[in-house]
Amino acid sequence: MNRLADATSPYLLQHADNPVDWWQWSDEAFAEAKRRDVPVLISVGYAACHWCHVMAHESFENEQVGALLNDNFVSIKVDREERPDVDAIYMTATQAMTGQGGWPMTVFATPDGTPFFCGTYFPRANFVQLLQSVTTAWREQREAVVRQGAAVVEAIGGAQAVGGPTAPLDVPLLDAAAGQLAKEYDATNGGFGGAPKFPPHMNLLFLLRHHQRTGDPQSLEIARHTAEAMARGGIYDQLAGGFARYSVDAHWTVPHFEKMLYDNALLLRLYTQLWRLTGDPLARRVARDTARFLADELHRPGEGFASALDADTEGVEGLTYAWTPAQLVEALGEEDGGWAADLFTVTDDGTFEGGTSVLRLARDVDDAAPEVRARWQQVVGRLLAARDTRPQPARDDKVVAAWNGLAITAIAEFQQVAALYASPQDEDANLMDGVTIVADGAMRQAAEHLATVHLVEGRLRRVSRDGTVGEPAGVLEDYGSVAEAFCALHQLTGEGRWLTLAGELLDTALARFAAPGGAFYDTADDAERLVARPADPTDNATPSGRSALIAGLVAYSALTGETRYREAAEAALATVAPIVGRHPRFTGYAAMTGEALLSGPYEIAVVTEDPTGDPLVAAARRYAPPGAVVVAGLPDQPGVPLLADRPLVDGRSAAYVCRGFVCQRPVTSVEELTAELGSTR
Question: pLDDT tens digits for 113-140?
């Protein structure tokens, strides 16, 4: 009996017709294994995962494999995005046993959940042999199996331990982190390390803030060069916007085609901040088109943002996206087809499978002559129309709280920066206006969805789908990312409701997730007990729960003036600081927030009758130091602490600038304000 038909997870639903008697993660599944005295197979993946699909087609859809599993195991299918706590524990076990991890993750465990053998993808023949070997070992070598499981659990406990060394995250540590990233920087291709190459959004956000604080030109150049290399590479969708999960090579040419919400949210934030700091036209375009991608392709009307677009289309990776020269000619005609092949580096040999190519920009077009830009945009529109007639990748429609929080924060920042550079003279002013309007609506709907659907009796739930909230409890990254998002929305809208909600989430996190010595666990104190309680301090594909919470605490403290939240943030950062100094590539979000604390962060309140058009508001947002909070509105506006007891000056707008809860006299001119904000270095 396959029990996945009523799942809310699209990934689990993909397996609802397998000949495997799948269970969802539940106490009942483990009780059944104990009753039958058989081991448990825990198979972990996610809907957009290419190799998860391959293993499903090869093994889980196979009758022979299904019979082996049904006769000898209780099989549990887990969506890692719904249950990051389960994924974290068993990924730690997999890495401890094999030295590496990934998805699909294949774990064999005792009926109490103790893992004793772990791996990732197995071809069918190897998987069948493995199932037979595990079955034999369980029957004939049970004592050895249990001993091995106990050793794995001990290793997990050590890897997830809290209460280790602490240190202040100070200037020398952050300077050293920036220096270490510069040593690991790929000066030829951008980014860090070799293939496969993932977009290092959090590290680049840290380097942009580090540049702001210190004036270090190398930090800015690493961020600028990497952003340009990614935007001109195949990892970026040159037609519709949006970034793929990673590049299989070291030079951003061929992507792994899945598009994840969290990557695009963090990359939108990166390109937005690069645009704000430099005015770079490429950063402007990519920020705009990434915001449009989020709003058009991932937003679910009336709800939040979907999790991902699949890597495969009809079982073929890249089917939607790759081109041959002949296909370009068919779509555009001989002359424009040849021009497009040259611009997008589409060759007869190809860069992808079957002689096809992934589109890349061979040269910069953002600064090209107007007639070149016009032709390029026309070609993009015609190619996109042709591509829309092809089969399209599936979308994972579940709404993940933490990732929606990242998207809300990114769009809120994008809206602020877009307003700074709005000009009717821009050749694509109408396009920018359209994107900002649609993105703003999507952001607000997502925030309402989190506030009304995901918040249940004061506690955050991890996922929802089709307007219905799921059972999995929110983990630390959900509380931190959503709180930070509500703080960002408060700054954009001036509505006190969002700040109140952020405070309630942070209070719950402080009460329920705290660990000794200022650290935090990833699960609440009343969450389901697993073989260990996860507490990973490192940033990986997304900010760690600890980093996300720290960012929320810092923003909320600056917006309210309540020092206990800052103190909690500083204590938590001290638990991450030793890792920042040694492994900055895995602590980018923590280091980014550390830069905000070193900077102040600044608290900027602009009292004005025109919070959208006042030049003082524009200057505050344009020149805001790292991690600064900015609010604008009438004096003593309800629910906005930074506007309390701050009057207009002689009837004129005024900016009140504070740093670390110490305030300067109010200023009434843009020149005075920019001078005050320019004193950050």
Answer: 999 999 999 999 999 999 999 999 999 9
Rounded Cα distance between 174 and 593, Å, is: 11
Question: CA-to-CA distance for 164 and 537, rounded, in angstroms?
Answer: 11
Decide if 518 contacts 572 (C-beta within 8 A).
yes
DSSP string, 366-398: TTS-HHHHHHHHHHHHHHHHHHTTS----EEEE
Residues 6+ apart with CB under 8 A from 300: 306, 397, 399
Q: How far is CA 556 from the centre of its chain?
A: 21
For residues 566 and 323, give the distance between their C-alpha atoms in angstroms, rounded to a whole number.
52
Match 């524990």 to its residue by tokens: 89
pLDDT digits (tens, 9 = 90+) for 366-401: 989 999 999 999 999 999 999 999 999 999 999 999
Per-residue confidence band for 48, with pLDDT thresholds at 50, 70 and 90: confident
Q: What is the C-alpha to C-alpha distance for residues 25 and 33, in angstroms, rounded to an integer?
A: 12
Contacts of residue 651, defined as CB under 8 A and 6 or more positions apart, other chains included, come to: none
Residue 214, classed as helix, strand or coil, is helix
Q: What is the pLDDT of residues 133-192, one digit of tens each?
A: 999 999 999 889 888 888 888 877 766 667 778 899 999 999 999 999 999 999 999 999
Rounded CA-CA distance 22/69 in Å is 9
Burial of 369 (0-12, 13-18, 19+ CB in 10 A): exposed
- How far apart, in whole angstroms, are the C-alpha atoms of residue 224 and residue 187? 12
Whether 103 and 42 have beta carbons less than 8 Å apart is answered as: no
d(CA 34, CA 42): 15
The answer for residues whose C-beta is within 8 angstroms of residue 529's C-beta and 6 or more apart is none
Distance between CA atoms of 620 and 617, rounded to whole angstroms?
5
Q: Kindly report the backbone phi and psi dihedral angles of residue 512, in degrees, each rounded to the nearest multiple of 5, phi listed first.
A: -105, -20
Closest-CA residue to 131 (of 249, 256, 42, 41) = 41
Q: Supply 259's token pair.
A: 């598009």
Q: 32 φ, ψ to 5°?
A: -65, -40
153 CB contacts (<8 Å, ≥6 apart)?
93, 114, 115, 531, 532
40 close to 74: Cβ distance less than 8 angstroms: yes
pTM greater than the 0.85 cutoff? yes
Kindly calculate the radius of gyration of the chain based on its CA atoms and give it in whole angstroms: 26
Q: What is the pLDDT of residues 15-29, one digit of tens each?
A: 999 999 999 999 999
- Rounded Cα distance between 309 and 640, Å, is 38
